[in-house]
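Posting for a labmate who doesn't have an account.
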Amino acid sequence: MSNMEAEPAEVECVADPSAGVEVIEPRLVPLGGIRAMKVNRTLPTRDRSMVGAWCFADHYGPEPVSQSGGMQVLPHPHTGLQTVSWLFEGEIEHRDSAGVQAMVLPGQMNLMSAGHGISHSEISTDRIEMLHGVQLWVALPDGVRDAESGFQHYEPSAVGLTDSSGDDAGTMRVFVGELGGSAADIVTATPLLGAELLIRPGATVVLSVDRTFEHGVLLDTDALEVDGVAIGRASMAYVGPGPESLEIANPTGEVARVILLGGEPFYEDIIMWWNFVGRTHEEIVAYREEWQARAERFGMVDGWDREDWIPAPPLPTTRLKPRKRPRPRG
């Protein structure tokens, strides 16, 4: 997925000091181009750029493909990060310059490691009527951010959730890391958690979590309460390190769908500009120049002509600087 924002917009992050919960409201941005489908973006913002190593979170749909045209993201580059695609509805074809061609379906995950550099395309197929899911990025630490690219596909099993009385409260699928005894067969460069939770109407679940992690609870449906703090659709509740549990309550009469992200705080200062994650202004300038020159670093995606690509936006007139992360609570 191509990030069409060169810099994150100002978005208010509202904290509840008594609960230690910070609510991040989404903003609407175009996916892959000005006339493309719109997505709700909660990461990054100027006030909260990351949750663990998760540095980017887009939530889209449910979107009728007949109206939006679906996802039509032409070849575009990445460096220094991993992309994670997770679908609720629809079907997307991934192709990259390392020669990988793979579909992602609901309940499945595609994880692409860009490392030194890669280009890829993401196109929804003409077999679907609705498109609905999340696209996430993970910043790679300095020791591996220039490594070779890689690709992992994973389909986690659904496991049951229970409330405090032991009654059925829903299901979860862990696609990265470990939660509640369920572990994903996925390799990551830093300790991470990624899971989809489906919580029954009126149910409350208390999840045992790693107290060294910070967590983000991204809501796909209408309403939710995280440690007693209410959030709405497409919003994210941030909880810093310290708590050993998270209480997530569904106050509605419909099933609540939640994406839970977590990870150890990522203290390396990064520059994330367009589709690149680097450490210095000079690195970002070089990545952009190489992409515009269609250099070997990013390769070519099979099935596309050389003219099929997304050019990089202009660089800002000021020098790019790392965005200092706020120290997490706890």
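Reply:
Got it, the structure tokens are right above this. The two ends are 33 Å apart (CA to CA).
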